[in-house]
Amino acid sequence: MKKIRIIHRPTSPKARSSISEEWVGIEIPIDEPSIRKEIAQTRDLTEKLPDGYDVLIRDAIDALTRAGRKDARAYWLPDRNTVLRFNKAACKIIES
User: Please, which residues bridge with residue 56 across strands?
Assistant: First the structure.
């Protein structure tokens, strides 16, 4: 299964930098069929988004939990989105 590893603090229009910094080192699966399904149901497909990798928010929160990143987990847990996008410059693709 493909994953992304966050290697630099991702940019975020919502989260403060200390929360964004907690993503560094986190690995999140890229479950492409599930992500495409969620995007089709929840996102305006005509919307222009920055180039990046989409992950299911539940997978991202699970990864934060496993890493003990409690502040970031608490910040993102109530988020109503089902998909998060990480900018490509902050990520590295890895195979598990």
Answer: 83
